[in-house]
Specification:
With 354 residues, the chain is α/β, with parallel strands linked by helices. The protein folds into 2 domains: 207 residues, D-Maltodextrin-Binding Protein, domain 2 (3-Layer(aba) Sandwich); 136 residues, Bacterial extracellular solute-binding protein, family 7 (D-Maltodextrin-Binding Protein, domain 2, 3-Layer(aba) Sandwich), CATH 3.40.190.170. Helices cover 46% and strands 16% of the residues. Helix 7 links the parallel strand 6 and strand 7. It is globular, with a radius of gyration of 20 Å.
């Protein structure tokens, strides 16, 4: 789906649907420290008592998700007696560190990618099965579906968390320095940096690529020094991390989304009043709408323009050519379908949308 169509669809779809999820604020009222987090983190508010949310995000403040988080935090602070202390850029640690902190209750909220849950559960990998969800319109419907909520609730109960909001870092694509990718055959033998995922490693191997693990912060140098031929990545990261300076070809295919979830400590959430919870719900709903309808499309437009100006060639893989990739990936879909009925239900729901 073209970007202008995505914007039009979301303007209508998002205006009609209210996120069933919730979230926590942004807009820091002051810098936090480990001592501050420790002092206030596990406190549970009572009734309409004032509350403080320390909210961490490993992601860059240059990314669209940051703007959405800021909108949510501003609404929460303006419409409740909740103070939000928002810290992006990994100030409170990496995603794994912050996941542990929110489970321990030393911080109240974190914006974290679904892939960061892979240590604890296979369920969230359903949202990133390659070639299953290939556009933002479908993704939004999936993340706000009953099938997704069933997964969120189960994982949340097991880990002592409350999934309170959704976001997105950008649809993944292929980028490399050898040739444009137009078919499965073009991937053969390419050393591709992939996000850490056994599932993704399996799919990329089945497609004929040689998946390579490289820390995210080191990918630029790996591309520059030919340690890898390319990467599976999103346009937002190519722009934010300046990868377009060391890439020749980008092939858009709707590989898989890179969703973020906003999660809170469950005990803290349960201690909030209904009015406070509603303020968080509404604020995060607004943030998500702004992200999908405005911030993400606008940022990707800027990223695409920067890539073109930098001499990167961009092509789109669609129709029968994309279906060739899908046919190979379905083997992995079936493997994950067998892991849990909820994954199977989600896959069936996505396919029904098509």
């Amino acid at each position: 789906m073209k970007k202008n169509q995505v914007k039009a669809v979301f303007a209508a779809t998002l205006a009609l649907s209210m996120l069933f999820l919730t979230a926590c604020g942004s807009n820091s009222t002051g810098s936090s420290s480990a001592n501050a987090a420790s002092a206030s983190g596990s406190a549970v508010s009572s009734g309409d008592d004032p509350a403080t949310i320390i909210w961490g995000n490993y992601g860059s403040s240059a990314m669209p998700q940051y703007s959405a988080d800021q909108d949510a935090a501003a609404y929460i602070q303006e419409n409740s007696n909740i103070t939000v202390d928002y810290q992006a850029d990994g100030v409170l640690g990496g995603e794994a560190d912050m996941m542990q902190q929110v489970m321990d209750g030393t911080i109240q909220c974190v914006t974290v990618s679904t892939s960061s849950f892979n240590t604890y559960t296979d369920l969230f990998e359903a949202f990133q099965l390659p070639f299953l969800i290939g556009d933002y319109e479908t993704e939004y419907k999936v993340l706000t579906s009953d099938e997704a909520k069933a997964i969120f609730d189960q994982v949340g109960e097991e880990l002592g968390l409350k999934v309170v909001g959704i976001g997105e870092n950008g649809m993944r694509l292929f980028a490399n320095n050898v040739r444009p990718i137009t078919s499965v055959a073009d991937l053969k033998g390419l050393k591709l940096r992939i996000a850490t995922s056994n599932m993704l490693e399996e799919v990329m191997g089945n497609l004929g690529a040689n998946p390579v693990s490289v820390p995210y912060s080191e990918v630029y140098l790996a591309l520059q020094n030919n340690v890898v031929d390319g990467e599976e990545i999103n346009m937002t990261s190519i722009y934010a991390m300046n990868h377009y300076e060391v890439l020749k070809y980008i092939s858009e295919i709707g590989l898989y989304p890179f969703p973020t979830l906003l999660v809170m400590n469950l005990d803290f959430w349960n201690g909030l009043s209904a009015d406070q919870q509603e303020a968080i719900l509404t604020g995060m709903d607004q943030g998500a709408q702004n992200l999908f309808n405005q911030y993400l499309p606008e940022y990707e437009d800027k990223a695409t323009e920067a890539c073109k100006e930098g001499g990167v060639q961009i092509n789109v893989i669609e129709g029968d050519a994309r279906q060739e990739f899908v046919n190979i990936a379905t083997k992995t879909w079936d493997e994950y379908r067998a892991k849990d009925q909820k994954i199977g239900d989600l896959i069936d729901m996505v396919q029904s949308l098509k």
